[in-house]
Design goal:
Layout lengths: L5 E9 L5 H11 L3 E13 L5 E6 L2 H12 L6 E4 L5 H13 L5 E3 L14 H11 L5 E2 L3 H8 L7 H13 L5 E6 L6 E7 L4 E7 L9 H14 L4 H17 L15 H4 L2
Parallel strand pairs: 1-2, 1-4, 4-5, 5-6
Antiparallel strand pairs: 2-3, 7-8, 8-9
Helix pairs in contact: 1-7, 2-3, 3-4, 5-6, 7-8
The structure holds 3-hydroxy-5-(hydroxymethyl)-2-methylisonicotinaldehyde.
The site of 3-hydroxy-5-(hydroxymethyl)-2-methylisonicotinaldehyde (PXL) has 14 residues, from strand 1 and helix 7.
């Protein structure tokens, strides 16, 4: 019998299908792994109100019950966290990682949905910084989240990204990827990887039109899939960058508001 490789996401539901657990489970499948999910929040988007996001957290005790179910089968090969929704849910995630001695842990410190620039829930962001970063094999903040976690505020240059990565590493994450993505000016999408001693700059041409809703979640899920399959952190990040670029190239316009990535893009292109 083939050896089953297990992956887990603790994250929210994006009803529009591009981000959240939907992105994670689709990506885990593309990586040939068996995906588990513990649902933390339900996010809806309102077409009658400019695609306004509503976030409904699930009771932390129900998140804990889901994790009890999942870990009844033993540890997983790699896991990630995404949108967590409350300080209590962050604590539940912390406990599950510790109790089950999880070693391949990707923390995507989701603070906002795309296009919004205020931290959704500042207490949860602090809890992620204090409780989850010390457990992270890799943390994957976008430019905005890296500014918040590092305390540097708005980041606008490659040098800013490197400094943020260094400061976030000091908070306990063993590896840091600051996703500049298309947010930095110029025609390149730039991410900075820092492993505590060396920086690697990943650079690809920006893709137009950018159907990139869910790109962040997909990137972190792809790193998780790579780690589960035994890649080194550096290899997992490099492959995830290719995987998410293909997902963006194959994205589509869902409606006038949003264009999700297509998680099967990497496979289609091969
Ligand atoms: O892209 C951030 C994100 C994460 N998780 C969920 C989301 C979103 C943005 O829409 O809905 C569940």
């Amino acid at each position: 019998m083939t050896q089953i490789i297990k992956t887990l996401t603790i994250a929210g539901s994006d009803s529009s299908g591009g981000a959240g657990i939907q992105a994670d489970l689709k990506t885990f499948e593309e990586y040939g792994t068996y995906g588990f999910s513990a649902l933390t929040t339900i996010v809806t988007m309102d077409p009658d109100n400019g695609w306004h996001h509503n976030v409904y957290p699930i009771d932390a005790s129900i998140v804990a019950e889901q994790l009890k179910t999942i870990f009844a089968g033993g540890p997983v090969n790699a896991m990630k966290t995404g949108m967590l929704g409350s300080v209590e849910i962050v604590r539940v995630a912390e406990q599950a990682i510790k109790e089950n001695l999880q070693t391949n842990v990707v923390i995507d410190p989701v603070m906002v949905c795309k296009g919004e620039d205020e931290v959704l829930n500042p207490d949860s962001a602090e809890a992620i910084r204090d409780l989850l970063l010390p457990l992270a094999t890799v943390v994957t903040p976008n430019l905005f989240e890296a500014g918040v976690l590092s305390g540097l505020g708005k980041l606008s240059t490659l040098e800013d990204m490197k400094e943020a990565a260094r400061l976030i590493h000091k908070l306990g994450a063993r590896n840091v990827v600051v996703k500049g993505g298309k947010a930095l000016g110029g025609d390149q999408a730039i991410d900075v990887f820092f492993d505590g001693s060396e920086y690697t700059v990943f650079q690809t041409a920006k893709i137009e039109p950018a159907h990139n809703h869910g790109a962040g979640c997909t990137f972190a899920a792809a790193i998780t899939g790579g780690l589960a399959n035994g890649l080194s952190v550096h290899e997992a990040v490099a492959k995830a960058k290719d995987f998410v670029s293909a997902a963006i190239r194959n994205g589509f316009a869902f409606n006038e508001y949003v264009g999700p990535v297509f998680h099967g893009g990497y496979r289609l292109e091969r």
